[in-house]
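Bit of a strange request maybe. I'm writing a small parser for structure token strings and I need a real example to test against, not something I typed by hand. Could someone generate the tokens for this chain?
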Amino acid sequence: MLAVINTRCNAPWKKNNLATAARLTHAIAERAVTLPGTGRIAVFAPRAETDLSALPKERVQVLTTFKPDHDHFASLGYDCAVAPEGRYAAAIVCLPRAKALTRATLALAASVTDGPVIVDGAKTDGIESILRDCRRRMTVGTPMSKAHGKVFAIEAGTDLTDWATSEPRTIEGGYMTAPGVFSADAIDPASDMLARNLPPKLGAHVVDLGAGWGYLSANALTRASIEQIDLVEADHAALACARTNVTDPRARFHWADATRWQGEARADSIIMNPPFHESRSADPDLGRGFIRAAAGMLKPSGALWMVANRHLPYETTLAECFASVSEVAGDTKFKILHATRPARQLRQNRLD
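Reply from user aminoacidic:
Good idea to test on real output. This should exercise your parser:
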């Protein structure tokens, strides 16, 4: 069964998440969509900023594979899972940006729901396109437009089996990926550049922050000197691919928010290609969070190796977190940054 996927590359804008709350609340209040009076309600792929207060919490199950969102809703008392558990009286699908993923998520929602499937999304996430697709093949309720998006419902019992294009695929190099994960169609060129520029020795203990489907770790493990590598990834589906792609017994897999994860021991090296999109525009704060977390995970003599898009201004944050920072390789698109001797205060903060 397809797991619901939230990924860094498909994450919607925060303002769109807040708009989701406005649209859902308004649609329910105005009876533009109707929820059954009893039974469980599945909410597929909401982001942490999404307000679900218009729904009866005791009947809601949040379905998301993105660990920060999973942890957020669990902390608010919602029942959370990474995949459907049983059947539901209704479902709400918070639109992901990738069209194939949207179709697969709708197919999954329809297959486990006995009542209406409600679709909510912003124009920037393709709600108009998916509405047209739905109208071509099924009965669709009158859409409600609000906050630069739409909410509509499709009738119960709709068969969308042909949209469930959720099978993993094998790409160049024999790596397995899945729909919706970062770099699902090919090896990411930035990660490839970092892999080619890693030094022969990384130390005995390495951490791959934001490991994705495992490309960097697979390359790092060609070094016999590595005794353990921790793959830390927030997307459950991507980590499942990594388990297939990285079968070396030295690998450890962690479904976790990379900015919050703490290992049992400090690392000799950290490798990473941090995410930088929370929207269609670059958001360097994401990468900065990864840098600060990395500094706190390393030994005093530890080193960070990271790749970033050329235009992202990470050097200031690196200089705040490390005593030595240099660019060791790059081209017009990407830069490879090497930082050593993490700040003592950051390392201490990770212990507190």
